Amino acid sequence: MGRMVTRSALISICSYAMDARQLGTLTCQCCRSPLDLHQPNPDRPDQFLGTCSACGRWFRVEAKADEGRICVVLIPEVEEIRSAGVTPAYRRSVE
Ligand SMILES: [Zn+2]
Fold it and tell me: Which of 27, 64, 71, 88 counts the highest number of beta carbons within 10 A?
């Protein structure tokens, strides 16, 4: 297995004061198209992956029923991270 080398970068986090039941009305922060919501882990029913079929952006979405808010994190494109000067360092596995 290859070695993983991590770097840090800033990300934008957006929080909406809306009920978790309104999750289906969520739109893309970049182009305002409706988001396609996916639930990758059935054991975490408040966690979603939002994808935009119009512009291709991905979002991490948390909608807790008891909090009355939905937290949306834009997942940056790898190319954006590179152009921000955060260059991944690749190393050959030593195992
Ligand atoms: Zn979009």
Answer: 71
Q: How far, in Å, from the CA of 53 to the mean position of ligand 1? A: 7
Q: pLDDT: is 77 or 86 the higher one?
A: 77
SS3 78: helix
Structure tokens, 20: 């978790």
- The string of pLDDT tens digits covering residues 20-67 is 788 889 999 889 999 999 999 999 999 999 999 999 999 999 998 788
Alpha helices, DSSP H only, in the chain?
78-83
Separation between Cα atoms, residue 26 and residue 56, nearest integer Å = 15
Measured at the alpha carbon of residue 7, what is the angle toward residues 59 and 74, in degrees to the nearest 5?
10
Q: How far is the CA of 5 from the centre of ligand 1 (A)?
A: 30
State the distance from the centre of ligand 1 to the C-alpha of 34, rounded, in angstroms: 8
